[in-house]
Task: inverse folding
């Protein structure tokens, strides 16, 4: 009979789950695991802070579509994971986090480095486990991976007491691989109700002014081909949330770009004027809807989502469909094709609507006022896009840098834009770039960062250097906490309270001190040269410090509490002078 310790079972179970990489940081409660991990087929990436482990695992999952895995010790190791796990939870990313715990007989006694990990993480996870017996360990790991990737993906936390991972029990590879996971009360509905699908198809075919509103669920279910096919089949304009950027290429004629608070004029006006809002894998977030009562006020609403709790949560829905986006859209497209033969005349009506939305795109593109005197942050992102042909994996921090990346980087592919959407966590972009580079070593990975947010996890330069990860960091350095400064400027009479970063490190010297490459551009004519040099370096990380216009704002902007149509727009010059950047 093959017998293994809990630590050996942990490692072998992960190998059988297909785990190739794990991001973590050792400590006393998980020493037995680390002792066995060294001899496994799993590559462990040693981060410099547990928050970075969770964020890197999150990005690994976003890029690959597989489950990301992170590991931390008990107490502060577990609590340091929390922000990263909350990021993944809010954006429905499949992550399994393993944490060490004091021995079972010490739990509740305030032992050294003891915290209630399951209690702390319960609100920010899909499910969590405290393994109390060695015989439960293998089954728990199996359940954790199943829960993380099935239905609506999410975070699962597994807390491992030290005595459990030291105990011995039987373990069989074949038994583990063949075991069917059954969890009482958990049966995700994936197929979608055919009657509801037929209703939705008819509404689509007969509508005069439909819009496809696409969210992160389309990325999770890999339904981007179906979205594109449906759009082309019916000449329907498409808008995406921040989480769905890349689901349809930036240059697709039906694409209206991102909607919402910093979305395009065309997308926001199309939502305002449409007679059918067809939402797929989106959750009607407040940053998307603005004033909820005036979001798609004239529209019949169809909502497809794998999570029934999301349907009708924020916006009344006329035709709800619970199911996986890819499976539902496949059935819907079949029904649409049948109906088109019966109602061919509606194609002409939709052509007029598409033409109107295209006119909005032409009249009011994403725009900034060029300068030959100072570096505009939008220009940096534009050049990054141009010099990588829109094919780099882009990670972002949070704030102005995040929105400029979303507006001006011309994405061509899905799973190439990684950002903390729901939680809005500063410090996400750099660990995410590390996770993405580990997952896709051949890819160009660029973190578009602010000078404030990059400092929240800048210690991960050591991680990137240690593993020869050639990630590129583009710091849009304006000496401010930029988005907070923008809001203080707009709503608080420019009372710039505690947003000026008057003391900054020299980012070039800091990069060099870690063994990375540091570059700087202070004039517009230096930007392209710096980016080209950075892209040519293939064996180590590069920090690019762009000294930018200090008080540039992100526009368009929908003020809080206002409707999408009430956008603050850039000051466009004469029509012929408008710079079409998307």
Result:
């Amino acid at each position: 009979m093959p017998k293994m310790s809990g630590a050996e079972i942990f490692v072998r179970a992960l190998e059988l789950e297909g785990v190739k990489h794990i991001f973590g940081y050792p400590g006393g409660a998980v020493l037995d695991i680390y002792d066995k991990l060294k001899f496994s087929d799993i590559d462990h990436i040693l981060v410099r802070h547990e928050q970075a482990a969770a964020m890197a695992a999150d990005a690994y999952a976003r890029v690959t579509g597989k489950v990301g895995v992170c590991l931390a010790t008990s107490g502060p190791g577990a609590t340091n994971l929390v922000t990263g796990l909350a990021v993944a939870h809010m954006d429905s990313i499949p992550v399994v986090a393993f944490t060490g715990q004091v021995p079972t007989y010490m739990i509740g006694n305030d032992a050294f480095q003891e915290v209630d990990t399951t209690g702390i993480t319960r609100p920010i996870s899909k499910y969590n486990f405290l393994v109390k017996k060695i015989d439960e360990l293998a089954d728990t790991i199996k359940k954790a991976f199943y829960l993380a990737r099935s239905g609506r993906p999410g975070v699962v936390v597994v807390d491992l007491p030290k005595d459990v991972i030291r105990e011995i029990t039987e373990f069989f590879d074949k038994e583990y691989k063949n075991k069917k996971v059954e969890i009482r009360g958990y049966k995700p509905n994936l197929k979608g109700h055919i009657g509801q699908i037929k209703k939705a198809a008819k509404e689509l075919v007969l509508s005069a002014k439909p819009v496809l509103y696409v969210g992160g669920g389309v990325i999770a279910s890999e339904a981007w081909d179906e979205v594109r096919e449906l759009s082309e089949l019916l000449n329907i304009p498409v808008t995406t949330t921040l989480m769905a950027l890349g689901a349809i290429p930036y240059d697709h004629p039906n694409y209206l770009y991102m909607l919402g608070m910093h979305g395009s004029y065309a997308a926001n006006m199309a939502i305002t004027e449409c007679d059918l809002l067809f939402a797929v894998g989106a959750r009607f977030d407040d940053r998307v809807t603005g004033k909820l009562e005036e979001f798609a006020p004239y529209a019949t609403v169809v909502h497809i989502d794998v999570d029934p709790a999301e349907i009708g949560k924020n916006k009344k829905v006329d035709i709800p469909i619970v199911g996986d986006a890819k499976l539902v859209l496949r059935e819907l497209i079949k029904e649409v094709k049948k109906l088109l033969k019966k109602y061919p005349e509606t194609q002409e009506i939709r052509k007029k609507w598409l033409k109107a939305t295209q006119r909005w795109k032409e009249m009011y593109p994403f725009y900034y006022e060029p300068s030959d005197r100072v570096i505009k942050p939008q220009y940096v992102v534009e050049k990054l896009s141009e010099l990588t042909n829109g094919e780099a994996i882009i990670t972002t921090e949070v704030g102005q840098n995040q929105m400029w990346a979303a507006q001006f980087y011309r994405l061509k592919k899905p799973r190439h834009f990684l950002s903390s959407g729901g939680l809005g966590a500063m410090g996400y972009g750099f660990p995410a770039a590390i996770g993405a580079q580990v997952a896709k070593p051949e890819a160009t990975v660029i973190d578009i960062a602010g000078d404030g947010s990059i400092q929240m996890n800048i210690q991960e330069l050591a991680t990137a250097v240690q593993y020869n990860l050639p990630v590129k960091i583009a710091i849009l350095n304006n000496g401010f906490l930029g988005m907070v400064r923008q809001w203080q400027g707009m709503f608080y009479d420019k009372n710039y309270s505690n947003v000026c970063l008057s003391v900054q490190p020299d980012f070039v010297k800091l990069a060099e001190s870690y063994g990375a490459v540091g570059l700087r551009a202070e004039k517009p004519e230096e930007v392209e040269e710096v980016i080209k040099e950075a892209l040519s370096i293939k064996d180590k990380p590069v920090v690019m410090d762009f000294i930018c216009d200090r008080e540039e704002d992100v526009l368009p902007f929908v003020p809080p509490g206002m409707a999408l149509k009430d956008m603050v727009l850039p000051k466009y010059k004469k029509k012929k002078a408008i710079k079409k950047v998307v």
Remarks:
- The mean pLDDT is 96.
- Residues 325-342 form the longest helix (18 residues).
- The domain at 377-554 is CATH 3.40.50.970 (Rossmann fold).
- The chain has three domains: 3-178, 194-363, 377-554.
